[in-house]
Amino acid sequence: MRPYYEASAVDRYHVPDQPVRFVLYLTRGNAPDINAIPQIGRHLLRFRPILQRRRETRQGKLLEEFLVVALVCAVFLFHLRSSAVIILSLPVGILVAFIVMHQQGINANIMSLGGIAIAIGAMVDAAIVMIENVHKRIEHEPLTDENRWRIITESASEVGPPLFFSLVIITLSFLPVFTLEAQEGRLFAPLAFTKTYAMAAAAGLSITLVPVLMGYFIRGKVTPEKKNPINRALIAVYRPVIHWIIRFPKATLAMAAAVVIVGLWPVSQLGSEFMPPLDEGDLMYMPTTYPGISVGKAREILQQTNKLIRTVPEVKRVFGKMGRAETATDPAPLTMIETIIQFKPRDEWRAGMTVEKLRAELDRVVQLPGLTNAWVMPIKTRIDMLATGIKTPVGIKIAGPDLKVIQRIGKDLERILKPVPGTASVYSERVAGGRYIDVDIDRARAARYGLNIDDVQDIVRTAVGGINVTETVEGRERYPVNLRYPQRVRDSVEQLRLLPIVTPQGARIALADVADVSVTDGPPVIKSENARLNGWTYIDIKDRDLGSYVAEAQQVVAAQIDLPAGYSLTWSGQYEYMVRAKERLSIVGPLTLAIIILLLYLHFRRFAEVAIILGTLPMALVGGVWLLYLLEYDLSVAVGVGFIALAGVAVEIGVLMLVYLNLAIRQHMRTAEAEGRALNEDDVKQAVIDGAVLRVRPIMMTVITIIAGLLPIMLGSGTGSEVMRRIAAPMVGGMVSATILTLIVIPALFLLWRRNTLTPGSRVST
Fold first, then answer.
1. What Å distances lie between residue 21 and 5, 29, 336, 507, CA to CA?
2. What is the model's pTM?
3. What's phi and psi for 765, nearest 5 deg?
4. Which residues contact 243 (CB under 8 A, 6 or more apart)?
5. Cα dist. 338→64, 321, 323 in Å?
6. Mean pLDDT across the stretch 89-112?
């Protein structure tokens, strides 16, 4: 086995005319040809297996959600033909979304399919409510061929308009996601597009296809609600609750307010991050060494780290490289190692082993002096480095005019940040610690031998750096042949001073006869940003969220670092993304809320009902916050997307409850008019009971369908599930609290509001 493999001019970065030099080490097996190395091939890294695992995970979740939704509908309705309406309308809506996705060029990836997944439960809400309303009418007027379409039309007309409006509101609630920019915008845009298309399709189908399907499929024996044991149990539990609410509406509202206030406590306990850690299946080891490392020492470190990593039983293959291509697209210095770690299948891991435990074990095993460890995900790190250049979660960019001062500030940052809780490693680049061999040519001495400056430089350049003399053709591949002096002739300053030079007269002299060869200090690399010299500090964190760590670290830095005039610190990395996303959502969020309020007012034409619905939003957020706290999730962009989706669905539940309460109050108003009297307080109370208790089935069906559609995401695992779980968690927790409080708070608010609109003489209870 060769301990290392040197290659030059391989077409691995799509730059066939540029040489690529690197050192790699394999822990097992020979690699006589670089194309035989599975991680190199046409691309340096192959991510196809990861993407395939993501697609399979999301497609499986879609199928599970479809089956769960169909099962919930069948259990609550006890009528398979009615369930067929939902089963048929749902794939049509999804198909419409896929067609628009295809026309727009959106691929079926983890985020686009995730948008469909979180929308499935809400997509069937309209069909559920319409079907249940038809069943309710059939209980009072049996369905015949003569009255079929009349009953279908009347039932759909009662609940169709508010349902359409609520679905439109859910569709528009994702407007803030469309305004995200840069990395977070590109990540969540497919999800926002597909969810919007799916909900828009559901809104259109709710007033077109669903009524027609109901007319054809709802026939035969329809089981009354009172004969369904599940519905009887729901009514039996809810009836005493609604009677207590009617007796003590103000106390009910006070209790609800207390619940919201208590819900503020877990908010203060939640951390913050840009994105949850995504398990890509593989791991990348990217330590940093001090500058001035030689190629020989780099080989030794690479071999040692790879051997240590390979001792972990779960590791299948290790592949490391040092160095970079001679192109600006890969500016990695020799001091930075990039090692790809491929793991064995999960079923071959030790019992109880997780990715986090593996990372901790690897960090304990690989401990070399002068090496600062960093364990990251391959794809995510590549994206971060392309965007900001920072490979760790947090980075500090020091800008100023003098590299020596920048290096001193960087060392101070290392010293004061190491004690901060959560710091796994911190390393500041040595921007002024490089070592160079200077060849200072003496013009006078060179002229005595008939040599000029260019002649001596050509000799040094050819002897040390080498020159391409020809190229070899191997099929479609071309490799240059590089010629230079042997390493033993150029491996030290003393040997370079004795470098032989042949003069035009044929005399043989040494390089020291015409030049002074010495070792000098200088910057190993010069970075600039915004036309200012830069030095970067890399910070890896563990066992702590990104937001609270940066907040404490900024306080420590501000208290202990006194920056000279002309120097500045910029916090970068994932923290930079997080701040940008928060600022954008804080602006667009209120604008979206204003649009939702306008749509609600256009539908109800009364601000009182709009206020009742908006009053349920904080209560919905309480459940989402508590579930995040229990699951130990941090606030992130993914969690924010989940809360946005929750707000739209919570508004829909509130609209649905108000629709049923308004239908009940209108029925009692007609009864009072027929009896020749005014509506009194008892009528309002009975209307609240009728609208809430007798319509608890469609509300619970809607809620359970949404939650059941999200449970496969919450309970599932696999590549990409980390992000989707954080989107689904606020919705699941929020739907539980929104449902409980909607069944309690909205009836209490509705009762107080309608009671205050009665005439003074009609408020007396009879």
1. 10, 21, 14, 36
2. 0.71
3. -70, 135
4. 689
5. 39, 5, 9
6. 81
